[in-house]
Amino acid sequence: MNAQNVQKYALVTGASRGIGKAVALRLSEMGYALLINYKANEAAALETLRMIEAHGGTACLLPFDVAGKDHVRKALDQWHEEHPGAVIEVLVNNAGNRRDALMAFMEDEQWSSVLGSSLEGMYHVTRHVLKNMLLNRYGRIINMASLSGLKGLPGQVNYSAAKAGMIGATKALAQEVARRNITVNAVAPGFIRTDMTGDLNETELKAQIPANRFGTAEEVADLVAFLASSKAGYITGQVIGINGGLYT
User: Which of the following is catalytic: 138, 159, 234, 247?
Assistant: First the structure.
């Protein structure tokens, strides 16, 4: 794994925009080749690719639906066949979506869609990537949770459940793989200015935040980059909030 000619990759799911895009750009700056995962928005994913290459980085698109077990397996198996010897050292499980509704009026599809893209997606991708990390005795897994997974928010029973599940999985998996020099941590953003929060009333909500503002995707990316680095080798099983002081 330490051979100089081995290409080291970072896989970021949902990397076409928002936090995922910022994380991909930041990991590229650290020297990783990027696997840019996306489900449908190819134009946005191509823009992430273009920005990485414009700064001298290496990246490729890896489209698949994280919620689909067979999609994940087929895409990653094919990539490994085409890149023999390459290793995925960093996995950022960022893909997810919001389908807010009060539980009394929530449709089954709203529940399954959100749980599928976040919790099940994390399971499918991590299980596949983890096998080689165990063989290589090195890896960094960062799961993108949320303040909703810690606090719970009305209208987000599905999203809160998905992110709380990711937090529990993070703590359990960290204990399973720590002896193999693999760390597993979760990042729990509060209100971050992205497309996903574009429908929220920022003026009203920022009054609840001690920092009196929404965070940026780049600030989250900097935290992820640290957790992905060798300097964070003794940090595992943790849930790190990035929320401007907004606590439960």
Answer: 159
What are the pLDDT digits (tens) for 106-152? Answer: 999 999 999 999 999 999 999 999 999 999 999 999 999 999 999 99
What is the per-residue DSSP string for the chain? Answer: ---TTPPEEEEETTTTSHHHHHHHHHHHHTT-EEEEEESS-HHHHHHHHHHHHHTT--EEEEE--TT-HHHHHHHHHHHHHHSTT-EEEEEEE-------B-GGG--HHHHHHHHIIIIIHHHHHHHHHHHHHHHHT-EEEEEE--HHHHH--TTBHHHHHHHHHHHHHHHHHHHHHGGGTEEEEEEEE-SB-SGGGTTS-HHHHGGGSTTSS-B-HHHHHHHHHHHHSGGGTT--S-EEEESTT---
**Known active-site residue 159:** yes
Please state, in angstroms and rounded to a whole number, the distance separating the CA atoms of residues 191 and 37. Answer: 23
Residues 34 and 57: their CA atoms lie apart, in Å, by: 8
Cα(129)–Cα(76) distance, integer angstroms = 8
Taking the C-alpha atoms of residue 79 and residue 81, their distance in angstroms, rounded to an integer, is 5
